[in-house]
Amino acid sequence: MSTDTDLQGDVVLLTGMSGGGKSVAMHALEDAGYFCVDNLPAELLLDFLRLEQQRGERRVAIAVDVRSASSLPLLLPLLKDLRATGVPVRSIFLDANNEALMRRFSETRRPHPLREDRDTGFGPLEGAADDSHRLLLDAIKLERELLGGLKAESTVIDTSQLRPAQLRAWLGDLVGPHVGAKLTLVFESFAFKHGVPSDADFVFDVRVLPNPYYDRELRPLNGRDAPVAAYLAAQPEVGLMMGQIAGFLSRWLPNFAADQRSYLTVAIGCTGGQHRSVYLVEMLARQFSHHGHVLKRHRELDAR
Q1: pTM for the whole structure
Q2: Which residue, of 36, 41, 144, 206, is most buried by count of CB atoms within 10 Å of its CB?
Q3: What distance in Å separates the CA atoms of residue 138 and residue 143, rounded to the nearest whole number?
Q4: Cβ–Cβ < 8 Å for 42, 185
Q5: pLDDT band (50, 70, 90) for residue 187
Q6: What DSSP assignment string belongs to 124-167?
């Protein structure tokens, strides 16, 4: 496949699971000044980018998903070829767990594009709810298989527990002025009781550290508040844990950058995602600010 072209400008390839939030993401990219095209077949991608180059440099976002299932096998080799020839393509994959996807399809009553059943026109039949549930799960499983290779080459955002405003904000961070940075480093706090973020590259469990929750005055505060920060800074175990995490990252970040990774997510989890994990994310993000493009996320706090 030849990609001998002199393309310029930012190109975002948006893909992911049906129900993962692509509509929200495309609107956010459009608001950020991207020219957006939805459901473009892979066979037309290169010609479209060449046409955009002739029209003048502008930022382009292209959404591709299983609605164009027949052309998906062409997409991954094309993406790799474009990157190999220096075209600045950032692939973003919107994922979510099965429970979230099932809930969203149930709420919107929209059919999954890979479901094999058809409306009979005779109304609900006995056992239809169970059949519908099974067919939807089968469709989601098949979609994961079809998109597995593309996900492995993409920046992954787990939208399972994200509100639309959160997704828009996180996406804005990704495609902001630092989009050309070699490696974007993300520190994310979360609560284990709500599940581990599926987009995490590294997960550190800080539930063993002293918990400000048990101090009545500190309980309503969070790890960004000065009293909580002072309490945790005074605990030797907190400093030891933070130093070991920072040491690990300092040792291995150059290797990830050399491996041409564009995105690395470090998830810090505690019980409620309010005190300890938030504090460590704030401190680590400050400590690694010299790295370049460093982002902070507080999954539970941002959802409030």
Answers
A1: 0.62
A2: 206
A3: 9
A4: no
A5: very high
A6: --TTHHHHHHHHHHHHHHHHHHHHHHHHHTSEEEE-TT--HHHH
The tokens describing 185, both together, are 């480093």
Instruction: Give dist(CA 166, CA 146) in Å, integer.
Output: 27
Q: Say which residues have a Cβ less than 8 Å from residue 101's Cβ, sequence separation at least 6.
A: 17, 18, 19, 20, 140
Give CA angle at 196 (178, 164), nearest 5°: 55
pLDDT digits (tens, 9 = 90+) for 217-257: 999 999 999 999 999 999 999 999 999 999 999 999 888 87
Give per-residue pLDDT as tens, 78-87.
888 887 777 7
Structure tokens at 293: 């493009």
Is residue 197 within 8 A of residue 267, CB to CB? The reply is yes
Portion of the chain with pLDDT greater than 90, in percent: 42
d(CA 277, CA 206): 7
d(CA 277, CA 274): 7
Give me the mean pLDDT over the 287-300 stretch: 88
Cα–Cα distance measured from residue 18 to residue 111, given in angstroms and rounded to the nearest whole number: 10
Radius of gyration of the chain (CA): 22
Q: Report the DSSP pairing between strands 184-191 and 89-95.
A: unpaired
Q: How far is CA 16 from CA 92, 96, 97, 157, 201, in A?
A: 8, 9, 12, 9, 18
pLDDT over 70 (residue 4) = no
Query: Residue-wise over 9-38: b if at least 16 C-beta within 10 A, else e?
Result: bbbbbbbbbbbbbbebbbebbeebebebbe
